[in-house]
Design goal:
heterodimer, A: about 475 residues, alpha+beta, Immunoglobulin-like, 3 domains, 5-stranded mixed beta sheet, 12 helices, 10 strands, about 55% helix, flat, B: about 575 residues, mainly alpha, Cytochrome C Oxidase, Chain A, two-stranded antiparallel sheet, binds protoporphyrin IX containing FE, binds copper (II) ion
């Protein structure tokens, strides 16, 4: 196979070489140079420009007819305005596109080279240039004003009674949060994220549990580090050496040096001996681990980071905010959704976006809505859904249709499949659905299972490994 | 600079560590051709996946090995290929390659200078470029693969090795390579500016400069002002990656662990990046526009229409390009009012751009057009510049960008302006100045084949992408099958990929023509295109110092084509003004 490809390539090169040579020879015979463009070539290229133009326009029309109805009807209020603005702009630029390209290709053909004709010496014309500075300026002014009006409407302050939904991104899925009965989102802090608290919602229990969990991990690593076989053996050797030395010093030359600095206090010797026993005991236990130098350092590093993490959680602890509602409580009745979330039709919704790891972008093509989700910097976008999922199914004549939220900022291997279903329904259906959802604290188990985190971590790794 | 006595030169000082601008120009061009071939191949590889998702292609396994098990591209590899393709095309082909080749070749020759202001810095500029090219290519082969976060390498994705395999060693090499690249650009750019300002020959006033030189000058100024900002962005990113700083990082939980970072902002990086990034697209485009101005005037046998307006629009575009960067960030959560300001400034750029397009077309009007391959590519450039610029109007409108940002609509837009217009300008330059570079002519017939295949396939690839984008298809996706609403545009994908493959093969006649003609092309005469500019008064065989005798003296502008006061349809700049002639 490779051989054949190679042969084809070689044959191709030889063929081209021969072609070039023949071309040059005939040119030589006719005394024609590369820079002289023959009448025939002029005609050929000139006509090709016209042919190309016709084919180009034809395929444009084909694309327009087949794909021009590019997206399903907009399902949001501002989306309709965006679509109208888009059509307005499209008409203008399509018109200019045809006008200018046609002039270009037709001139190219019309004024192709003729021997003996002298071109028109036409270096400038201020009136003409003024015309095509002023006309585009006017058209652009209209485009700018119209565009900015739509933009201002879209980005103005949300209505007082707007529904608020938090959309949270991570590699590679979405989570939605509703504020619950109190209408307030609980505070969130990324240091409190655990498998059972994926958004890091701050609650008194949550802080305690996160701390507990960290303590467990710290203890585990500390135990591992202290049970490292190589280190223990080294320490034993060291203690033995000291004791040995002390032994000699004590019995050999003690007299020469009076009370001698070399001798250790009884106390210290006892301590060392106790440690020696302890180490020997530990060596026999089941907890002994064997680590390479690098692994040992990695664990030390991890230990350090865990301690920093503990420190940061401690900083969350005394936090409280004034106003009647306590931050510690607001989060308890929040509702967390995976896989899909619902919106009532006709009611304005203000999304608040947060991200856990990298930048993602929350894109809902049917609602003409998009906003980046940025770690550390919450962003917002408001919209009003106008068509329920059911109505859209009827409109599109597609019983399986669903609105979706997808990721539109490259975020890693599974970026292309990071989506969530959006359901738009009547206010009653929406209320019933929301009612049926559990509150954050209700589904939270009391005990934190230290293995749970390990499980999630390995899952994450597995995912990225297989991706 | 007079007595150039040392004609005996070793191979090394002549071909490798040359300080002669003409040789350095050829070095840049050769490197760019190699980089371009690589980048095109990468794009064919990932277009195979997009056109026929999940199907195995033996050729992929042959070239990519473990990145394409069973001939199916791996998803991480997909992102790495896209990233490196974009990086090479934007920076190595269209910035280093385009400016490096033609600024170097033409600045001294067209202003009547013996060489660049500093031959040594010029040589350094090339070698930094060469080393950074090698590092960028090498990064494809390291553990974890090359950088994969897109050519804009936004943190935190690019800052955290846990986020994706490409953010490990590959990313570090990317950053190092780009730093060296910027050094090369700065050395080159300063040299170009100083040369144009100081070394113009007698009579070459600024208002007589060919438009090529105006374009190269403004390009160099843009580069010198904006590349340092990219370096600072890159250095801060390197520090976030390896020194525990948090300029761009805040509140991140990844890999099962809360990172010890607070207070940084990923958006800061985007401001810094696009402060270079937008001028960068004009660093890419302006030289191409300069080249085509020259080629179109020469081959229309007419003065370029509205010389002053052309210079004015180059300056206007150059200035405005510094205050529009925010149009890449409408959906980052930017203050909507600030967004409005960027809408306004961005749409202003359309005015000088429109002036340029109309002036090109008026130059063709009533001309006597010689269809050299360079001329064909320049006409193609005007078409693509208009087509691509127009969709920019949609993207600049923040309300509309919300819906098409980061979709294939953007891909269509910037490929038609950069991937077609700028590349067409570069190719036009190669065909036009080949006789000056290599002393031989390229084959015209092969040039025709090359142009028509490239024009048809270029539009065939990028034009349908508008529709894919308007249907809501995100860019940088490995596979679109997860989204039913896109099914109906996906039958465009195999068509696009087919055009891409044919278009890539269509570059073979060019490559062959390019290399074959170096040795076997028809020997060139001194002024084959009957052109006015000074480079065509130098001997065909290269020499140090460019002109054997005294430097030429300039008496007129570069565009006296078909001047009614003269018999010939061209009047070189060295011809003195006749009595009674209405001089420019
Ligand atoms: C003429 C030369 C031009 C070049 C070389 C060029 C190049 C580019 C490139 C490379 C991008 C990609 C951004 C990304 O990766 O996300 C882009 C986007 C963009 N371009 Fe241009 N462009 C040109 C002209 C224009 C014009 C004339 C306008 C406006 C009138 C414009 C407006 C925009 C906007 C607003 C974006 C951002 C779109 C988005 O990210 O959604 N461009 N351009
Ligand atoms: Cu994502
Ligand atoms: Cu820009």
């Amino acid at each position: 196979m490779k051989l054949i490809t190679l042969l084809v390539v070689i044959a191709g090169v030889i063929a081209l070489a021969q072609l070039a040579k023949v071309g040059q020879l005939t040119a030589l015979i006719r005394n024609k140079k590369e820079e002289d463009i023959s009448e025939a070539d002029s005609r050929l290229n000139g006509s090709l420009f016209v042919v190309f133009m016709v084919l180009f326009y034809a395929s444009f029309v084909w694309l327009l007819v087949r794909y021009g109805d590019y997206a399903p009807p907009s399902a949001s209020a501002h989306g309709e305005a965006v679509d109208t603005l888009m059509s307005f702009n499209m008409y203008i630029i399509t018109a200019v596109f045809f006008l200018v390209n046609t002039a270009l290709f037709l001139f190219a053909n019309k004024y192709r080279y003729e021997k003996g004709r002298k071109a028109k010496f036409f270096a400038h014309d201020n009136r003409l240039e003024l015309v095509w500075t002023v006309i585009p300026s006017i058209v652009l002014a209209v485009i700018i004003i119209y565009g900015l009006r739509t933009w201002n409407d879209m980005t103005g302050a949300p209505a007082e009674d707007a529904l608020r939904v938090e959309v949270y991104s991570k590699q590679f899925d979405w989570t939605a949060r509703y504020p619950g009965a109190d209408g307030e989102f609980g505070l969130a802090n990324y240091n409190l994220i655990t498998p059972t608290n994926p958004l890091g919602i701050v609650t008194a229990d949550g802080v305690e549990e996160a701390l507990e969990e960290i303590e467990v991990q710290i203890a585990k690593i500390e135990s591992e580090l202290s049970h490292e076989r190589g280190r223990m053996l080294a320490e034993i050797e060291e203690i033995q050496a000291v004791l040995h030395h002390n032994h000699h010093a004590g019995h050999g030359h003690a007299e020469d040096h009076g009370h001698g600095d070399h001798g250790m206090s009884e106390e210290r010797t006892a301590l060392l001996e106790a440690r020696l026993h302890e180490l020997e005991h530990m060596l026999e236990s089941d907890d002994v681990v064997i680590l390479s130098e690098a692994a040992f350092e990695a664990k030390e590093d991890k230990l350090h980071r865990l301690k920093r993490h503990r420190q940061r959680i401690m900083e969350v602890k005394p936090f409280d905010f004034d106003g009647g509602l306590s931050a510690w409580e607001a989060g308890m009745d929040d509702k967390i959704m995976k896989g899909e979330f619902h919106l009532p039709v006709g009611r304005e919704v203000e999304f608040v976006f947060r991200s856990r790891d990298v930048i993602h972008s929350a894109y809902m093509p049917h609602f003409r809505a998009q906003m980046n989700t940025v770690p550390g910097v919450p962003t917002r976008f408001k919209m009003t859904p106008t068509i329920t999922t059911d109505s859209m199914r009827t409109i599109l004549n597609n019983p399986d249709f669903d609105y979706i939220l997808l990721c539109n900022k490259v975020c890693g291997a599974a970026h292309f499949n990071m989506q969530m279903k959006v359901v738009v329904e009547s206010e009653e259906e929406y209320n019933a659905w929301l009612e049926s959802q559990e509150e954050f604290l209700a589904e939270k188990p009391n005990m934190v299972n230290p293995d749970a985190r390990a499980e999630v971590t390995t899952n994450d790794n597995e995912e990225s490994a297989t991706l | 600079m007079a007595g150039h006595a040392h004609h005996e030169e070793s191979f090394i000082s002549k071909y490798i560590f040359s300080q002669d601008h003409k040789m350095i120009s050829k070095q840049f061009l050769m490197t760019a051709v190699v980089m371009g071939v690589i980048a095109v191949m990468l794009s064919v590889f990932f277009r195979l996946q997009l056109g026929w998702p999940g199907e195995g292609f033996a050729i992929l396994e042959t070239f990519l090995g473990k990145w394409a098990p069973g001939g199916v591209l791996d998803r991480n590899a997909y992102l790495a290929l896209v990233t490196i393709h974009g990086t090479i095309m934007v920076f190595f082909v269209l910035t280093g390659g385009l400016s490096g080749t033609f600024s170097n070749l033409l600045i001294p020759l067209q202003i009547g200078a013996r060489d660049m202001a500093s031959g040594f810095l010029n040589m350094l500029s090339y070698w930094f470029f060469a080393v950074s090219s090698v590092i960028m290519i090498f990064s494809l082969f390291v553990e974890g693969g090359a950088a994969s976060g897109g050519w804009t390498v936004y943190p935190p994705l690019s800052a955290l090795p846990q986020a994706m395999p490409g953010s490990g060693m590959g990313m570090t090499l990317w950053l190092i390579s780009m730093t060296l690249f910027v050094v090369s650009s700065l050395l080159g750019g300063l040299n170009y500016i100083v040369t144009v300002v100081n070394l113009r020959t007698k009579g070459m006033s600024m208002t007589r400069l060919p438009l090529t030189i105006w374009a190269f000058l403004v390009t160099a100024i843009l580069g010198v002002l904006s590349f340092p900002v990219l370096v600072s962005a890159v250095v801060l990113l390197l520090m976030d990656r390896s020194m525990g700083t948090a300029f761009y990082l805040s509140d991140i939980f990844i890999g099962g662990e809360a990172l010890d970072v607070t207070g940084g902002s990923p958006i800061l990086y985007q401001h810094l990046f696009w402060f270079l990034g937008h001028p960068e697209v004009y660093i890419v485009l302006l030289p191409a526009l300069g080249i085509s101005s020259e080629v179109i005037a020469t081959n229309s046998r007419k003065p370029i229409f509205g010389y002053k307006a052309m210079v004015g629009s180059i300056l206007g575009i150059g200035f405005l390009s510094f205050i529009v960067w925010g149009h890449h960030m409408f959906v980052t959560g930017m203050n909507p009012f600030l967004g409005s300001v960027f809408v306004f400034t961005t749409l202003l750029i359309a005015i000088p751009s429109a002036v340029k397009a109309f002036n090109y077309i008026t130059t063709l009007w009533q001309g006597n057009l010689r269809f050299t391959p360079a001329m064909l590519f320049s006409i193609g450039l005007v078409s693509t510049f208009v087509t691509g610029g127009l969709t920019g109007i949609i993207l600049a409108d923040s309300a509309l960008d919300v819906n098409v940002h980061d979709t294939y609509f953007v891909v269509a837009h910037f490929h038609i302006v950069m991937g077609m217009s700028a590349i067409f300008g570069m190719l036009a330059g190669v065909y036009h100045w080949y006789p000056k570079m290599f002393g031989r002519m390229m084959n015209t017939k092969l040039g025709y084949a090359h142009f028509w295949i490239t024009l048809v396939c270029g539009y065939g690839v990028f034009f349908p992408m508008h529709f894919v984008g308007m249907a809501g298809a995100p860019r940088r996706y490995y596979d679109y099958s997860a989204f039913e609403y896109l099914d109906f545009v996906m039958d465009l994908q195999p068509i696009i990929s087919t055009f891409a493959i044919v278009g890539a093969l269509g570059q073979l006649p060019f490559l062959f023509n390019f290399f074959y003609s170096i040795f076997r092309g028809q020997v060139a005469t001194e002024n084959p295109w009957k052109s006015n500019t000074l480079e065509w008064t130098t001997p065909v065989k290269h020499m140090h110092g460019n002109w054997p005798g005294a430097l030429p003296e300039v008496h007129r502008w570069a565009y006296d084509y078909s001047n009614p006061d003269f018999e010939d349809d061209f009047v070189p700049q060295t011809v003195p003004v006749k009595a009674g002639e209405s001089a420019h």
